[in-house]
Each structure stands twice: as C-alpha cells, then as structure tokens.
Amino acid sequence: MARPTFATRRRTELFDSLVALLLAEGFAHLTLDDIAARLRCSKSTLYTLAGSKEQLVQAATVHFFRSATEFVEAQVAEASGARARIAAYLSAVGTALDPASDQFMVDLNAFAPARAVYERNTSAAAGRVQELIAEGVVAGDFRDVHAAFAADLVATVMVRIQQRAVRENTGLDDADAYRELAAILTGGIEA
Per the database record, which ranges form the HTH tetR-type domain (predicted)? Predict the structure, then answer.
C-alpha cells in the first residue's frame, strides 16, 4: 500500500483540525481569518482546501461524516450477532456525534449545504439499519418483522434527531438519542 504524500497527510491533518474546531465551536460566527489563525495556517492554505468559507464548511462536514462512517462500520465489524450489530451501529453513530457541540448542530441545521450532507448520511444510515434488520430476520435473531417498516421507523426517528426535534422535545442530544434508539430498537425486535 502506498504511503500518503506529505501534502496528502498535511491536508488530512488540516481537515481533522478544522473538523475538531467546527465541532467544538460551530462555524457561523467564524471568519476565514479566524479559522486560519486557529489552525495556525494562512488563508491561502485554506483556499487550497476550498474556494470559500461555505465550501470549506461543506467539505469539513463531508470529511467528518466520512470519518464517522468508517468508525461506525469498524464497530459493526467487531460485533457478533444481529442484535449486537444494530446496537453497535446506532451506538457508534451516537459516539461519533459526541464531539458535536450544540452550536455546531445549530449551525449545521441553519446552513443548507452542510444540512444536506447530514441528511444524506441519515438516509444512508437508515438504509444500513434496514440491511442489518433484514440480516437478523434471515438469521432468526429477530422475529419476522417487516425490515423496510422497521427501517422506515428508524429513519423517521433519525430525521427527527437530525432536525433537532428530539432535542427540543426530550432534551437528549443527538448522541444520546442514537443510543436510546439502539436500546429501544434492539429490545423490540428480538426473536
């Protein structure tokens, strides 16, 4: 396997630092000058990552969700059995969202391009849960539930989590809401 070049490593490090900054503080209030100062780089360096602050935020959001997906799938790969795999999946989504501050989530929801990235990932996650449920039904780990219906139910809750409705109605942040969803879902479909 080829080793990443210095430029590729530096770019990844910058994106990782950018993601950490945005997750911790949000992004609506930050200027490119602020971001460059906080990341200890020049604005021209930031422009090598994206052409504007908006494009930078969108690219960082994509980077965050790509990394989160890799983490989540690694957790699923370590789990054995359908119930454990679904619990691992949803719990890992919660863990991946732990670093996201309330301000980041507010800013994400208010910025359409970043919100669209979250929505695409939520949709993909719902599809993945449907696959895991269907595998569990076939394996006899789950009662014969309609996998598409169960996944649609999960997708509805996931969208409500993403849209901040669960937070507003229950006080649960996104990470805790995903963990609760995992507990309810896996307990409700056991064989």
Answer: 8-68
pTM equals 0.82
Give me the chain's average pLDDT, please.
87
- Per the CB < 8 A criterion, the answer to whether 92 and 36 are in contact is no
CB 33 within 8 A of CB 43: yes
Judge contact between 18 and 60, C-beta under 8 A. yes
Q: Are 82 and 76 in contact (CB under 8 A)?
A: no
Which band of pLDDT confidence, cut at 50, 70 and 90, is reported for residue 191? very low
Return the pLDDT at 3: 53
Contact yes or no for 35/21 (Cβ under 8 A): yes
Alpha helices, DSSP H, located in 50-111: 53-78, 82-97, 102-110
